[in-house]
Write a structure and sequence with these properties.
Distance between the termini: 30 Å
Helix content: 10-25%
Radius of gyration: 16 Å
Order of helices and strands: HHHHEEEHEEEEH
Oligomer: single chain
Largest sheet: 7 strands, antiparallel
Low-confidence stretches: 1-65
Mean pLDDT: 76
Shape: globular
Number of domains: 1
Strand order of the largest sheet: 1-2-3-7-6-5-4
Structural class: alpha+beta
Number of helices: 6
Strand content: 15-25%
Length: about 240
């Protein structure tokens, strides 16, 4: 399939009721795996599986409200009259700076937008460091529906290896991790943060190679993802990530 198949599948996804956290539609995965865009293929497959366990006993510091961008942000602030193009540029800047705080992208990062009536889905993917690890970002507008910590982990499909959910100022933070039995070396971390205004999901894997229909899990290229669980959490909680 071509790039257009991935775009079409994503557009179908954003016109339907999205799952609580993450892309899980079989249509998106099938199109993604056959796409010639290697990075998107790898990370879209990983998003449906992804992961990061909340370390036992770790302190969770409440960040600033997501609707309040950092006052000194060089990326600008969300304004009432902000255009679609300006919002995309601002969000791209925020995510690029947040990711580069912890890892060096192998290529320039670019946020792609998929607008639909009433909602917009933003996607960013990239290979990191020596091209042995990937990062994938999903950012979408939310209609005000909140996520209960009591069902956040139960709603994950497929079931992650580990999962934790916490209430953080402004929303619900869900962190999961998965290690596939069929591919012992593959590891994916994920941090998802949902507020009334937005949903952001950051995924990191230890591979940049594509999966296939027969073997959807990419082969591992390093022991663990380049971005740690704590780093994904900080990226997901970046102030100002509101479309």
């Amino acid at each position: 399939m071509e790039d257009q198949d991935v775009r079409s599948a994503l557009k179908e996804y954003v016109t339907e009721a999205e799952p609580p956290i993450g892309l899980t539609g079989d249509g998106v995965l099938a199109a993604g795996r056959r796409s010639r865009r290697r990075r998107v293929t790898t990370v879209i497959a990983a998003v449906a599986l992804a992961a990061a366990a909340f370390p036992v006993g770790a302190a969770l510091i409440a960040p600033p409200d997501r609707s309040e961008p950092a006052a000194t942000s060089p990326c600008g602030e969300k304004t009432p009259g902000e255009t679609f193009q300006a919002a995309t540029a601002r969000l791209n800047c925020l995510l690029d700076r947040a990711i580069r705080t912890y890892a060096t992208p192998a290529d320039p990062l670019k946020l792609e937008a998929y607008p639909q009536p009433g909602k917009t889905l933003y996607l960013m993917s990239g290979e990191l460091g020596d091209r042995t690890g990937s990062v994938f970002v999903e950012l979408m507008t939310n209609d005000g529906t909140m996520l209960s910590t009591g069902v956040a982990c139960e709603s994950q499909d497929p079931t992650p290896t580990t999962c934790s959910a916490r209430l953080v100022r402004g929303g619900t933070l869900v962190e999961t991790t998965i290690k596939k039995p069929g591919n012992p070396g593959f590891v994916a971390y994920q941090a998802g943060y949902r507020t009334a205004e937005a949903i952001v999901i950051i995924t990191a894997t230890n591979s940049t190679r594509p999966g296939t229909d027969e073997k959807p899990d990419p082969p591992a290229q390093r022991e663990l993802p380049l971005l740690t669980e704590a780093q994904l959490r900080e990226i997901a909680l970046t102030p100002g990530l509101v479309p």
